[in-house]
Each structure stands twice: as C-alpha cells, then as structure tokens.
Amino acid sequence: MAPGGWRWVRGLRAAGKPLFQGRVLLVTNTLGCGALMAAGDGARQTWEVRARPGQRFDLRRSASMFAMGCSMGPFLHYWYLWLDRLLPASGLRSLPTILKKVLVDQLVASPVIGVWYFLGLGRLESQTLDESCQELRDKFWEFYKLVNFLFVPSRFRVTYINGVTLGWDTYLSYLKYRVPAAAVERG
Fold first, then answer.
1. Are the beta carbons of 63 and 45 closer than 8 angstroms?
2. What is the pTM of this model?
3. How far apart are CA 164 and CA 145, in angstroms?
4. Rounded-to-integer distance, Cα 118 and Cα 122, Å
5. CB 31 within 8 A of CB 70
6. Residues 84-110, mean pLDDT to the nearest whole number
7. What is the per-residue DSSP string for 64-103?
8. Which of 118, 24, 33 is nearest to 71 (CA)?
9. How many Å apart are CA 148 and CA 48, to the nearest integer?
10. 8 exposed, middle or buried (CB, 10 Å; 0-12, 13-18, 19+)?
C-alpha cells in the first residue's frame, strides 16, 4: 500500500465506527440491507442489459429492491441480536455452537425472509397474492428439499415436508373453499 494508505483506512474505519454502535446500528442495518439489495439488483440488471440488446436499466425495479431490503433490515437486526443471545459463540472453539446457529438461521429466518421477499416484491410489482404465492413456490421451494435431504433422517422426511407445506396447504384450502362476500351477505 502507498505511504499514508493505512492512515486513510484507519481514518475511514474511525469515521464509520459510530454507525455500528447503539441505536444507530438499527438504522445502519436497515439502510445497509436496502442499499445492498439495490446494489445486487443493479449488478444483475447490468449483466442483463449487456446480454439482452434493447433491454434498459429499470430504476423502479432497483427502488423496489431497496424498499424490500429496508423492510427486512429491522427484522434481521433483531433476529441476529436474539440469535447471538440464544447461542453466544465466536472463534473455532465454538464451531459446534456456530453450526447450530447456522442451522437455526437457515430453518427459521431463511424461510421467513424468502416468503417476505417474494410476497413483498410481488405486492410492489402489482402481482396478485395468487401470482406471488405461485412464484414463491416455483422459485423458493428447492431450499426445503435441500434441508430435507441434508438434515432430516429418512423416517421423518414425509412429516417434515408435510409440516413445511402446512401453510401452503392452508392457503390452497382457503382459495378453494372461500365464500365470496356476496354469498355471505345473502346467506
């Protein structure tokens, strides 16, 4: 690094330190989540624009990603604070506890965030709830299959999948058997 370069890095670190302390951390995590989701979308759109002649960069799409990221930031902020209190760990000696944290995170937070993401973006893009749920099922379902085959003993696999699909099955039953408002008023 050039002479004085480390001084610049130390100065940047010192300037950013207050952003990761106290109450400001919630704001940092919220805006950071939004900014990184928008940046990820921007990177993807840049690739799409290069690969597909005639396609233009969609600022509204990136703005929707920013909004979704900001909506998820507070949940993730408090989720990780809670998880760190539940399973305190750091360093290689805590590897078994860290692996438990990863498992809990993947089994609990990942599905919540996946549903939140697809339903929230669907709403921002004027999709119906049916369309958003179908997209969620088509694009996110593979995660549950991975967990099933990686971690669930074979004798529990059917029960696990039935438990996971309970929410979906409830929704399908609601769609199939819901009574239109007009029929309720007449009845």
1. no
2. 0.69
3. 10
4. 6
5. yes
6. 85
7. HHHHHHHHHHHHHHHHHHHHHHHS---SGGGHHHHHHHHH
8. 33
9. 33
10. exposed
